[in-house]
Amino acid sequence: MKNAASEIEWLTFARAVKGTFFSKLVLMAVKLFISAVVARVLGPESRGLFVGVMQASGSLGTAGTMSLGEGLIYLISSGQIPKAKVFGTVIILGLLCTVVVLLLLALVFPILATLVLGELSSDIGDIIWYLAPGIVIEYLSVSAIRGCQAFSLANRLSILCKLILATSVLVTLAVSDMRIEDFIIAFIFSSFINSIIYLGCLFQLSAFKFGIEWGQIFPSIAYSINLHPGTIFSDIENRLDIFLVLYFLNPAHLAIYSIGVTVSGFLFYFVNSVNAVLFPHLSSKSNVEDQDLLRDTIRRTLIVCLFGVAFLIIFGSEFIILIFGEAYEESYLLFLVLSPGIVLDSLSRIMLSWMKSNRKVHLINYMSWVGFAINIISCLVLIPNFGIYGAAFATLICFVWRAIFVFSIYCKQHQIGFIELVSPVKSDYRFFVSIVARGILSFKGRLRF
Question: Domains in the chain: how many in total?
């Protein structure tokens, strides 16, 4: 039975997750608004090309940042980088990553020009370079703030910056010809504004000091580079279906597929909220102390995900038509294919936080390499034969592989069965009942006023 101290620890953890999750809900609403606007204004084919450009930029950002955000979270949470030197350290790492991203873009630009940019104006080839600094600064800044466990600040900044992006999109609608180039410029402009805001908050968090923890620059890079191969392959695995759908099919099919993936990804907002708090928390705890918290998190995440999937199955079709239009109605069937994998992958992401905090980097890399091989083979076989449904089944196969791998590692190490690990216990029911009860009491209290 848990003692009072562990119950208090869980409540503290749950409050941090709750604040992060509510901020993610706002972010989800804003992202949904932006996606709906782009989908309706550009239409399926142009939206598909827009998605291709943004996905390519995201992949280059992931490759060029070298997973340094994970290293920052780990070293800041464990006290190896003091808060007073966070700002300067982020600046140095940001400059390094920006150079790497630009070099990578120079290397792959001929491929992008053929696969994605060929059907667009030459202006996009010139402006895509400006996406790099904003992607790098936002990624490193968010990681550093979460490493300081300033979750409330990170949540507020995320909402503010996403609202700035939405405003840029609205202004673009009002003053431009509504070309793909105009929307990309809106993204670049908002990313520069957001970078300034993030850096300002980091400077304040560092007590307005420009200190650099030179002694931890190389340990941060070393930790991150060890993790980075797995991150790269995992990112490619997650985006590979997008590029292969664009290659084998056409931009309109990609637009429909991307909406199905977007709806499926709504559940990841909750899981990412949990991991945003869990990884820094586990990084500062001993391996023995974190087991109760980790297992509670797995069980309760599963319950939330099952309810979320059931809700989307019931209302997803009407939701897609209402928000995106009838042209994207087929996206609902893709969501149905992906939904079992979404639940499994949600739990896998929780386990990855445990693996990263315990420096099981080699296992993460192995999982990513094998997952990448499975995904590319599945996509090459299924997409030419079954179209966008083949891409969905290829993604589902990878989700199942990741879940089998991470849970087999944990269950073997801790001598616990999978069913025992994920089966709800009485404390889980009490936890959710208490949440509902507090929500009702809070609602009644507001009605009195």
Answer: 1
Residue owning tokens 């989908």: 39
Residue 39 inside a domain? The answer is yes
- CA angle in degrees (0–180, nearest 5) for 261-265-270: 180
The whole-angstrom separation of Cα 168 and Cα 182 is 10
- Residue at token pair 């995201």: 58
Tell me which residue range forms the domain holding 281. 15-437
Determine the Cα–Cα distance for residues 388 and 405; give it in Å rounded to an integer: 26
DSSP state of 120: S
Token output for 184 = 């990309």
**Does residue 81 lie in a domain region?**
yes
Residue 449 lies in a domain: no
Q: How far apart are CA 310 and CA 50, in angstroms?
A: 31
- Coil, helix or strand for 344? helix
Residues 6+ apart with CB under 8 A from 119: 49, 251
CA distances from 39 to 186, 255, 333 (A): 16, 8, 18
Nearest-angstrom CA–CA distance, 47 and 38: 7
Q: What is the CA radius of gyration of the chain?
A: 22
Q: Is 247 exposed, middle or buried (0-12, 13-18, 19+ CB in 10 A)?
A: middle
The answer to whether residue 444 is domain-embedded is no
- Tens digits of per-residue pLDDT, 180-239? 778 788 888 888 899 999 999 999 989 888 888 788 778 777 777 777 676 777 777 777
- Are 375 and 243 in contact by the 8 Å Cβ rule? The answer is no
Q: Are 131 and 191 in contact (CB under 8 A)?
A: yes
pLDDT in tens, 287-342: 445 677 888 889 988 998 899 899 989 998 998 888 888 888 899 999 999 999 98
CB atoms within 10 A of CB 89: 26
| 259-297: pLDDT as tens digits | 888 888 777 877 888 887 787 777 765 544 567 788 888
Rounded distance between C-alpha atoms, residue 139 and residue 202, angstroms: 13
Q: Which two tokens stand for residue 10?
A: 């869980």
CA–CA distance, 332 with 9 (Å, rounded to integer): 40
What pTM was computed for the model?
Answer: 0.68
